[in-house]
Design a protein that fits this description.
mainly alpha, globular, 422 residues, 74% helix, 17 helices
């Protein structure tokens, strides 16, 4: 029996709003607590940093440097411990910030009758960014038909109602499903079964939504196109054995210069490094673009690992979700180059965050040209595996978005499908 208030039976939307408002209050209380803890950690970090600076000045300006070292060394160790302990709390705080944003987004959707319209170039983007050509039989609808039906246009457009996701992969996938409806009843039924399975698995779906929110818009259109079109190959000279020999020679000359205090060796070190950088000038000009590409897809690669684990723990209950899980699993457990192996190699590229020190180190050793080609060549050789995984992510987010609408509007019914394709 549904409870009534003032003789009025609450609708599904009203109950959803009540649940969301209750969740918003709980998240707000949790955020207040986490912000307090975060502020205390930041205060301790600042105190440790001040002690380190004070210890340094004592060692620099006092004749007896022992007191400075006695202050500085414990402060350095304390600072490292505080940073280590602070990190998981920062992750919790970031997670609840995302939860707050997701809840606000849902409440805005429920409180507004108008649905956001897509951009003018969205249909072209759906065609341009499609990772895979639909395998099932489908009908491509003309733009004027889509406009007449209000699929992408108007205050109550269908796409605006059904899209509740965060990433470009999911929005493009849902857009392609709407503008190219399947003609195969089995294909449509598999989507319906998967959406209903996600609707029933509320906890898993909410976690999946949070996982997609972590990626958000970090994956750019250019990154998707580069992966799909195989547009990430460094010039051939970047993989030359001459670079390895040149790096060894440069480091040997630098070590000799320090060991023998030889000005000539210092001079030859800079000559050797300058010559190698000059020979690789074309590759070095492309390094920032490829580093940005790898940095852009890194969160999505991490998402593949997380979602594969979520689906494995919950056990997919529809054939469509099983197929999605298999694609993600293939990418995470690939023998030649798994996602975890790519992530391990990408961590090396984080050295550029050391600023000027990294610039000098990279100039002497061609560090980027020793790391980037290995990662890029692995991606190129196993590109189909990762394209399947990216496509699976798009399908999973589109299905999760549809499942959320089914939960909000449980009066909706699926169109009846024939038992066989005609």
């Amino acid at each position: 029996m549904i409870e009534t208030k003032n003789g009025v039976t609450p609708t599904v939307v009203d109950r959803t709003k009540t649940k969301l408002l209750q969740s918003a209050r709980e998240v707000d209380l949790k955020l207040q607590r986490l912000r307090g803890i975060d502020q205390r950690f930041m205060a301790f970090r600042l105190l440790a940093f001040v002690l380190i600076v004070a210890g340094y000045f004592l060692t620099a300006f006092q004749e007896d440097a022992r007191y400075g070292w006695l202050m500085m060394l414990p402060a350095i160790m304390a600072f490292a411990v505080i940073v280590r302990l602070h990190r998981p709390w920062r992750k919790h705080l970031s997670r609840y910030h995302r939860l707050e944003q997701i809840i606000d987004q849902k409440l805005k959707r429920l409180n507004s009758e108008a649905r956001p319209e897509v951009s003018k170039n969205f249909l072209e983007d759906c065609d341009r960014l499609a990772i895979q050509i639909p395998k099932a039989a489908h009908q491509s609808l003309a733009r004027y038909i889509l406009d007449d039906l209000g699929v992408f246009k108007g205050r109550s457009n269908l796409y605006g109602l059904m899209w509740n996701g965060h990433t470009r992969l999911g929005s493009v996938q849902l857009g392609n499903w709407l503008r190219q409806p399947a003609l195969d009843a089995a294909e449509s039924r598999s989507r319906q079964d998967a959406a209903q399975a996600l609707q029933a698995a509320i906890d898993m779906r909410e976690k999946i939504e949070q996982d997609f929110a972590t990626v958000g818009k970090q994956l750019k259109d250019d990154d998707i196109l580069a992966l799909r079109d195989d547009d990430f190959q460094l010039p051939a000279e970047s993989k030359s054995s001459v670079n390895v020999v040149g790096t060894i020679l440069t480091l040997s000359l630098l070590a000799s210069a320090f060991f023998f205090q030889s000005t000539l060796c210092f001079f030859l070190t800079f000559v050797s490094a300058g010559l190698i950088n000059y020979l690789n000038r074309a590759s070095l000009d492309e390094v920032p673009r490829y580093r940005d590409f790898l940095t852009g897809i890194k969160p999505t690669l991490e998402l593949i690992v997380v979602l594969e684990q979520r689906l494995r723990e919950n056990g997919p209950t529809s054939a469509r979700l099983v197929a999605i899980h298999e694609k993600l699993k293939t990418a995470t457990e690939h023998k030649e180059l798994s996602v975890s192996e790519i992530q391990r190699r990408l961590r090396l590229l984080n050295a550029y965050k050391f600023g000027l020190l990294y610039v000098v180190f990279s100039w002497l050793t061609l560090f980027d040209l020793h790391v980037l080609p290995r990662v890029l060549s692995g991606l190129r050789h196993n590109r189909d595996v990762f394209l399947d995984a990216f496509h699976a992510l798009g399908e999973l987010e589109a299905l999760s978005s549809i499942a959320m609408v089914l939960e909000e509007q449980n009066g909706w019914v699926w169109p009846s499908l024939p038992s066989q394709t005609h």
